[in-house]
Amino acid sequence: MSVHSYYTVPETVPEFVLNNSTGQVFMQENRFDKASLNWDDVPERVEMAKHFATAIEDIIPLASNMQVMDFGCGTGNVATRLASLVGTITAVDSSAGMINVLEKKLTESKIKNIKPLLTEFNEDSFQKDSFDLIYTCMTFHHIDNIEHVLRLFYKMLTPCGYLVLIDMEKEDGSFHDDNTGVVHFGFDPELLNYTLDEIGFTDIYSRTAYTRVKTLPSGISREYPIFLITGMKSIA
């Protein structure tokens, strides 16, 4: 096992680590169908996507033959920035609205190697050893059973394949203007490190990918750190 230097095994394992139930993963698709209509009209979202794509490019040795999954792709703001650096990106989302916006974007940009896929994510979604890289950006806080999804990712990665998780650190619930569909108010990166290690990931590494600054309704300006965690599937 090789992990970032500040990694320690927590005394108390969080509930999402212990929950190993199976079943489909739902990502509040009705809410996101409506939100997709003006999703890209928010400059901060587009700016975050640029930082996330750059962070992935900086830390993962991308190659033209890589098969990639973007889990919770939304309108594809990260995928479209990485497409020229990899072989194929399977852009997965459970929101028809988000997928529709992405398809229009791909038609206009003439990007050919992003494959939008509208699906609920479950055991039968993809075959074992399908992807060289799976990344997910700002999606996990909408997912209830985190460990189950991470175990599916592990199965779907090729040996020595990479996982990248990007999401918020723990916050008090003030990040979203509307917390409908928000299951987790961020995460403790060390607890996620622990979960990845338990599943079998190696070379686990964590750092801050971006800090989002928001002005709350009270007028107070707040910083919300967003972490990046990477891991590699073992050869065995």
Question: Would you kindly provide a written description of the structure presented here, covering whatever features stand out?
Answer:
There is one protein chain. The chain contains 7 helices and 7 strands, in the order αααβαβαββαβαββ. The chain is an alpha/beta fold and 236 residues long. It has one domain: Rossmann fold (3-Layer(aba) Sandwich), CATH 3.40.50. It has a 7-stranded mixed beta sheet. The chain is globular, with a radius of gyration of 17 Å. The relative contact order is 0.19. The N terminus is likely disordered.
Task: Give the SSE map.
Blueprint: H1 15-18, H2 29-35, H3 43-59, E1 67-71, H4 79-82, E2 88-93, H5 96-109, E3 114-118, E4 131-137, H6 146-156, E5 157-168, H7 189-199, E6 202-215, E7 221-232
Parallel strand pairs: 1-2, 1-4, 2-3, 4-5
Antiparallel strand pairs: 5-7, 6-7
Strand order of the largest sheet: 3-2-1-4-5-7-6
Low-confidence stretches: 1-29
Provide the number of structural domains: 1
Q: Return the CATH topology.
A: Rossmann fold
- Distance, first to last CA: 13 Å
Structural class, judged by helices and strands? Answer: alpha/beta
> How many runs of DSSP E, i.e. beta strands?
7
Looking at CATH, the homologous superfamily is Vaccinia Virus protein VP39
Share of residues in strands: 25-35%
How much helix is in the residues? Answer: 25-40%
Biggest sheet details? 7 strands, mixed
Globally, the shape reads: globular
Key traits:
7 helices, 29% helix, alpha/beta, Rossmann fold, disordered N terminus, globular, 236 residues, single chain
